[in-house]
Specification:
Elements lengths: L2 E9 L4 H17 L3 E9 L11 E2 H9 L3 H17 L11 E2 L3 H12 L3 H13 L8 H10 L4 H10 L3 H13 L7 E4 L3 E4 L4 H12 L3
Parallel strand pairs: 1-2
Antiparallel strand pairs: 1-5, 3-4, 5-6
Helix pairs in contact: 1-9, 4-5, 5-6, 6-7
């Protein structure tokens, strides 16, 4: 009998390791087949909650936040690109020059969750930013991407313009902070088991099988 499994995927749309973690998690679920019946719930986390709407140059941002050198940034970017390629995702670092505020993306994702489309929207927003180099905080981009995954663009625009779901997103972010989540991706299974970071497919598979078996 298939084991029901609730998976909360806590992440930001501007986090490259969240792309890797989500792809690896889904491929691990594919590997174990009908051992589990999983529901993935997209949950909000802002890496840069104080980021201005116009964003910041990515090189300046990484140097300021992490103290990384150009050489370190290039090495990290190549490692991310290679991990993404192995998982079937194309990182186009040449197209991504800025880091942006993502709060409105999280509001839209919250609404998409109510419509049963949060996961497709999450994937589409990650592609928009990391592959196409678009601003995931820009309302025109968010509305267009929402339409691409089958959501009502008129309603999406209304959500963004109105500030809807601000309180709900803030509350969810606070909930996870209070439970010690301070880095993403954080994969929380059945409200009890935490798998942190952009783990390989094999690591997710082992964790999922162990939890399904009652371990």
């Amino acid at each position: 009998m298939s084991v029901p499994m609730k998976i909360d995927f806590v992440s930001d749309v501007s986090c490259p390791w969240c792309v890797i973690g989500l792809r690896a998690l889904e491929q691990a679920l594919d590997r174990i087949g009908d051992v589990v019946t999983a529901e993935i719930h997209v949950q909000p986390f802002e890496l840069n909650p104080q980021m201005a709407l116009e964003g910041e140059d990515i090189g300046e941002h990484l140097a300021r936040k992490y103290g990384s050198t150009p050489e370190q940034r290039a090495s990290n970017a190549e490692a991310i690109r290679a991990r993404g390629e192995a998982l079937g995702f194309e990182f186009r670092m040449d197209r991504r020059s800025r880091v942006y505020n993502t709060f409105d993306a999280h509001r839209l994702l919250h609404w998409a969750g109510l419509e049963g489309r949060a996961l497709p929207l999450k994937h589409a927003l990650l592609r928009a930013y990391f592959t196409e180099g678009e601003n995931p905080g820009a309302h025109d981009t968010l509305v267009r991407v929402a339409g691409e995954v089958g959501l009502d663009t008129v309603r999406a625009a209304e959500v963004l313009a109105s500030g809807a779901y601000t309180d709900e997103v803030r509350a969810q972010q606070q909930y996870y902070r209070e439970r010690g989540i301070n880095a993403v991706p954080a994969v929380i299974i059945n409200d009890r088991h935490l798998v942190s970071g952009g783990q390989p497919v094999e690591a997710f598979e082992r964790a999922l099988r162990q939890i399904a078996a009652g371990g």
